[in-house]
Each structure stands twice: as C-alpha cells, then as structure tokens.
Amino acid sequence: MLGSLWRRTSRAALERAEHALLSRMKRPGCRPSAEDDCSQRFSRRLVDLGAGRRINTVIVGDVEQPPVVLLHGYGAGVGFWYKNLPALALHNRVYAIDLLGFGRSSRPEFDFASDDGELDEDALDRAEEFFTGSLEDWRHAVGLDKPFVLLGHSFGGYVATLYALKHSDRLQSLILASPFGVPDEPLEHDDSIVSGETGEAPRAPRQQQQQQQQHSHHHPEPSQVSGKLNSANTTHQTGTAPQQQSPSKKKKAEKLKSGDPKSHTSHWVERMWANNVTPPAAVRALGPLSSSLMSYVVHRRFARLDEDERDDLAEYTHHLWAQQGSAEFALTTLFKPFGWAKRPLANFLGDLQVPTYFVYGEYDWMDSSVPMRAWHNKINPNIQSVQTLPECGHQVTNTKTLVHQCASLLRCSGQ
Questions:
Q1: Rounded distance, CA 126 to CA 261, Å?
Q2: pLDDT at position 116
Q3: Which three-class secondary structure state does DSSP give residue 320?
Q4: Rounded to whole angstroms, how far apart are CA atoms 153 and 179?
Q5: Local structure of 331: helix, strand or coil
Q6: Is 188 a residue whose pLDDT tops 90?
Q7: Of 149, 159, 205, 207, nearest to 179 (Cα)?
Q8: SS3 label, residue 169
Q9: Using CA atoms, how far apart are residues 277 and 173, in angstroms rounded to an integer?
Q10: How far apart are CA 262 and CA 274, in angstroms?
Q11: Strands 356-361 and 171-177, how do they pair?
Q12: What is the DSSP string of 207-236?
C-alpha cells in the first residue's frame, strides 16, 4: 500500500488510463455525427488461467472473422495497439493481450535470474516457459481452437517466435514487427552507442541497409544457419550505419583503468544489469517524480501525436511502469547486457514451420541484417519477406502504417 502511494499508482488507475487510451479508437471510414461519434467498440476480459494467473485481454472485431493475436513489447501493454486495432479488426477477430507479468495481467514473482549474464540453461528454459506456457494456457482458456495469426512487436516478437517454435500447429502465420533478440552478440561493439554519443543522430534508412546486403544464392544446411546468418554481423542492434571498428575487450579493460568515460558507461550498464536494475524499477524509485519524467519522455518521443493524445499515452505508460515489478526481470535472464539474446533467434530461423514475415521501421534501431540474409539465402522457405515501413522508427505500433502493411501480410497468409 505504501509503495503504491509513493509511486502514485494503483491497478484501478492503470485500468482507467488503459480505458482512456483505447477509447480513442475510431472506426475506419466513419464520419462522426450527432448520433454516432464513430467510437470503436471493444471488450476487455481478465482471462483466468488458474494458479492465480490472469491475462488482460482486449477483443475487437466479429467473432466469425479469422483470429489475430497481438503481443506487445517490453514494458508496454495492450493500450499501445490503439492506433492499429480498428483497422485490423475490419476483417479479423483481434485479441490484444498483456503478457503475463506486464500491464493489467497478473504479476507473479519472477525468480529465474541467472548469474552475471552467464548462460544458465535451466533458468532460460523456465523463463521461456513463463511466457510461452501462459500464452498457450490463455489460448486454451479463450477457446481459440482454429489456427491464428500471431503478431509480436519487439520483445513480443521474441516471445512470439519462441511460441511458434513450440506450437507451430496452433498458428497460421507469424508476423514479427521489429523483433528483439534476433542477432547474436558480435565479438566487438561500439561503446559510443551506450554512452549516448550517437544521441539522436540520423540513422541510416532501412532501404540503405538492405542495399548493403549480399544477395547470395547459396542454400546452407540447417546446421550451418547460425554461422551463415551471424557472419558479418559486427554492428550493434541500433541499425545505424557501420561505424569505426571498436576496441577489443583487452583495450576496453585498459580504458577502464585509464578512466575512459565511455568504458565507464559500459561498466555501469553491466553492473546495473547484473543487479537486475530495470528501466521500470528506476521509474518506481523516483516515486512522485516518475509521472513528470514519463510525461517528458513520451512528449518528446511521440512528438507527432496531438498534445492530449500524448498526455493519455504518458499517463498510461507511467502506470504500466509504476506497478509492482514482475516479468520485467526476465530481461536479465533471457538477455545479456545491451540486449543481446542468450539464445539468439538467428539460431532458430531455419526451424520455423509457419509462414513468417518480418517488418521493420525505416529508422528502426533493431538490426534487420540477419532476417534479410535468411530471406535472400532462402535458408527456410517459410520466411516469406522482410519489409520496411517508411517514415517509421522502432515504435511501429504507434503508427497506422503498420495496419496497411499487416493487411497485406494477412492476405498473404491466406486470410
């Protein structure tokens, strides 16, 4: 109770903020009138999975339409899909869920941490099952028996891929919007990225990156996939243009001893990571100041939105992050410092058994080079395409452009 007062939040406040954001949805093509304000109808349910677990679910669209399930990114929630849900629901029954441990879903204790970024197979297995198992339990609880399209953004794309690898028979297709955790960690990467030196400098457009890919026609064996895809992956996940070669680990250590500020930044990031200090945890620690900080960040990051719309998004994000910590702590279990996956999805792209589509923003900070090579090299015929959303960054869920791209992909997948 005292913690909630310090953080200026509650589950009821999060519910109200979520409702305010979702109430902004308007039916596509509708002209408001005195009798009809064109509001999109939606329903919300807390789906009981048993064992004290409940999954917050927003449902839009006719029950007779083909099903699509949406998974949000890290630290996000169902409200982040408010710009996409109405158009996606024109020809689909859309389910947007808060992953277990996020949003308004149950927030059980997440205690699968591994030590200092080391690969702990048992911890990784249990952490993955925390998400894929609860998603499968949710599917069963809502009675979703027909194959469905699974669309995941960022961390949700990572979870969606893990689910597809385990339950391919449940899916019709897989759409990965700027997925997290795809490339393997390069041997070297530039400290300037974590030091903030790159700041808001213009990023190389995705088309330019794609033009740099090698159009090889070699078809590697499945056992060769990981090496083939990760070779030449020597840039950080930011998707920036190739930078100067960074120092080796030995030189990094020398820099630390000599007081190099960039290496100190890297060092502190690694220490915070080892101690499971997550971005939401930092926000909670700020207490009454967190709401103002979140408002500042959201208003800057989503400058294209209307002022009142940014206010609603900031309020929602604040309450998402200020709630009791749970699945956010999966970050240090599943990933190394700076977000490199301990089990990179690049190693498993050859194993996908469902039609898979990758979508990135033109100015995305996620690296599309691995999926691009997989597609060009035809290592798996199920990888259908790697496409780009113009004038978009990583937050493709906050733009209607994603809707038009996904409509095309849904048609490609047979719907």
A1: 37
A2: 52
A3: helix
A4: 6
A5: helix
A6: no
A7: 159
A8: helix
A9: 35
A10: 19
A11: parallel
A12: HHHHHTS--------GGGHHHHHHTT--S-
What backbone torsions phi and psi does residue 168 show, to the nearest 5 degrees?
Answer: -60, -30
Tens-place pLDDT, residues 89-120: 999 999 999 999 999 999 998 877 655 556 68
Q: How far is Cα 72 from Cα 228, in angstroms, rounded to an integer?
A: 30
Instruction: Return the amino acid letter for 13.
Output: A
Confidence of residue 400 (pLDDT cuts 50, 70, 90): low
> Which run of H or of E encompasses 70?
strand 67-71
Q: How confident is the model at residue 81 (pLDDT cuts 50, 70, 90)?
A: very high
Q: Report how far residue 293's alpha carbon sits from residue 322's, in angstroms, rounded to the nearest whole number.
A: 12
Q: Quick one: which H or E segment has residue 153? A: strand 148-153
Taking the C-alpha atoms of residue 221 and residue 206, their distance in angstroms, rounded to an integer, is 28
- Host H or E run for residue 53: strand 53-60
β-pairing, 356-361 with 93-97?
unpaired
pLDDT of residue 273: 74
Alpha-carbon gap, residue 145 to 63, rounded angstroms: 13
What global pTM score does this model have? 0.81
* Per-residue pLDDT at 45 exceeds 50: yes
**Predicted local distance difference test score (pLDDT) of residue 362:** 85
- CB of 316 within 8 A of CB of 324? no
Residue 410, token pair as written in the block: 């849904």
As a whole number of angstroms, the distance between CA 180 and CA 155 comes to: 5
pLDDT for the residue 4: 55
* SS3 (DSSP) at 389: strand
pLDDT, one tens digit per residue, over 324-370 is: 999 998 888 899 888 899 999 999 999 999 999 999 988 888 989 99
Two structure tokens written together for 53: 């677990």
pLDDT reading at 247 higher than 70: no
H or E element at residue 56 = strand 53-60
Cα(262)–Cα(179) distance, integer angstroms: 27
Q: H or E stretch including 311?
A: helix 307-322
Report helix, strand or coil for 65.
Answer: coil
